Amino acid sequence: MISLHDDGPERSILARLILPKSTVEDDPLEELHGLAATAGTQVVDELTQKRGTPDHSTYLGKGKVEELRLMVEKYEADVIFFDNDLNPAQVRNLETATKAKVIDRTELILDIFAAGARTHESRLAVELAQLEYSLPRLKRMWTHLSRQSMGVGMRGPGEKQLEVDRRLAQKRIHDLKEELSRVESRRERQVAARNDVPTISLVGYTNAGKSTLMNALTEAGVLAQDKLFATLETRTRRWHLPNWGHVLISDTVGFIRDLPHSLVASFKSTLEETRQADLLMHVADASSPNVFEQITAVYKVLEELGVRAKDTLLVLNKIDAIENPQLLNRVLDRYPHAIPVSAKSKKGLQALQEIVGEALSRGFLDVEVDVAHHDGKLLSYLSAKGKIESRDFGDSHVTVRVRMPAGAMGVVHQTALRVAPTKLSLQNTVPTADVGETQEGPDAGDEPTDVSSTSSEVA
Asked: Could you count the other beta carbons within 10 Å of the beta carbon of residue 265?
């Protein structure tokens, strides 16, 4: 999409139609500014309009379309970015009226993902999302030629080309889904094979500082840039927690408001770490004026992924960038158990480590289990679900010391000869909670509530 204009980046104009039910931030085009900059363009002007409904032909009203045309002429702009999703007819009409390229929100995000995809898996996911986005538009864009198919002997080349393009696109979509399904199965096996080590997944709004936090905690040296969607692939590193041991922590693709559904579906395998993690660390940019809206947007995406009920700690990052302490207090008033940190200055990281260790401990039990020699099924279950500390072989049974998820203890109690807490567990007396009893995030339409509780309800 990016081309040179007078030896410089493309000049872009930002536009947004604000509908009655839209969430309006202090700066309604702030996020689109970030997307346009990430795409490599220079923003020269912007335009917003409030309407009850979009215009069916040009989305904006006629007066605003004329205003856009004058902006394009004044700045010699190359492209107009819309913070809305447009249909093909609206894009075509706007391009005709303004004499500039028009790109809607979804297409812009897909373009940024395509430019940033580095691994084979992420390239497959982006290509699938782009094809699924363009296929219905392909059908409608050719309607002016499909009239040639009316009547015997009137089947023109336009209709034939449409059918060829449609079949090619559908076959490629089918092939991509099959290949991604194989990748997803392989990823599930890889993640499941790590059952002996607790896993933590970093999630959050794009550019909230997840990669910087991961570097601060693990010295991983992963790419951390001040731009949207700097991370498109999952990176996993080992993290040593004091008084706990080693855990695995994964950095994942960032979320965004109205993230295209096709991208969420396509990146399902990439986000497998999030779906199978023992604990989520939801990293939010506490310095953003839109922090509440961003937290809500992340919960909506987690709900789409089916992981909204995961144990989650809310981490308020970038507190060093907050000049007015009242702004941080405003966030903490709504999320009193959130953990304020600065990944850049490493402030608050020790407290974060302690809280993460406590949260993981609440989900696990240190127990001593007597298993009959012939009960190979239970021995395999303990090995698969827990971390074996030791085995002592007696005449009639094996005494296994194991750290088990609390939610997996039901099967153990059914068939074990004896189950007792270890001496270490009794000394520490850490409160436990059923892994299955977690508090869900807010409903899609509700204001988010604090889910970073340090009690047994780690939601």
From this structure: 16
Residue 139 has pLDDT above 80, yes or no: no
Task: List all residues 6 or more positions away from 139 whose beta carbon is below 8 Å from its beta carbon.
Answer: 162, 166
| Strand-pair category, 279-285 with 312-317 | parallel
Burial class (CB in 10 A: 0-12, 13-18, 19+), 332: middle
What count of Cα atoms within 13 Å lies in the side-chain half-sphere of residue 223?
Answer: 14
Beta-carbon contacts of residue 150 (< 8 Å; ≥ 6 apart): none
pTM: 0.69
Alpha carbon distance 409, 264 (integer Å): 33
At 175 the three-state DSSP class reads helix
Which DSSP string do the residues of 242-310 spell out, in sequence order?
TTTEEEEEEE-PPB-TT--HHHHHHTTTTTHHHHH-SEEEEEEETT-TTHHHHHHHHHHHHHHHT-TTS
Cβ contacts of residue 245 below 8 Å, gap of 6+?
none
Q: Render the burial of 347-367: b for 16+ CB within 10 Å, e for the rest.
A: ebbeebbbbbbbbbbbbbbbb
In 10 A of CB 406, how many CB atoms? 17
Q: Residue 433: is its pLDDT beyond 50?
A: no
Q: What is the pLDDT of residue 14?
A: 96
